[in-house]
Amino acid sequence: MGLKPCPVCHVPKNELHDFGKTWPLRNGLETQKIIAESKSLGATAGERLLSSKGLRAIDVCQSFDKALQIFHPLLECIYECCMVRPS
Fold first, then answer.
1. With contact defined as beta carbons under 8 Å apart, do 46 and 39 qualify?
2. Where are the domains of the chain?
3. Residues 80, 82, 73, CA angle at the centre, nearest 5°?
């Protein structure tokens, strides 16, 4: 499990147990910028950056369709748990 294992928000691994807190949601544009930045760094520094954000450098085009079929129900559940609730 990575440092930020939630695919929907930026909850740190050590805070997964605390459902009373909310965390910023991930978004595609931010993820693309981080991946582009990691590619401009060397391999070691790029991996460190990705790891700190809970990301991995994968070929999304080949993996996305299969992963979506497998994980879609789980991601929907996680997304509902991470939604910011009105106070």
1. yes
2. 13-82
3. 40
Tokens representing 11?
């909850």
Per-residue pLDDT tens over the stretch 61-82:
555 666 666 777 777 777 777 6
Q: What is the mean pLDDT of residues 23-33?
A: 85
Contacts 24+ apart (CB under 8 A), 51-57: 51/2, 51/3, 52/3, 53/4, 53/10, 54/2, 54/3, 54/4, 54/5, 54/6, 54/10, 55/31, 56/2
Q: Average pLDDT over the chain, rounded to whole?
A: 79
Q: What would the two tokens of residue 30 be? A: 């931010």
Determine contact, residues 22/71, Cβ cutoff 8 Å: no
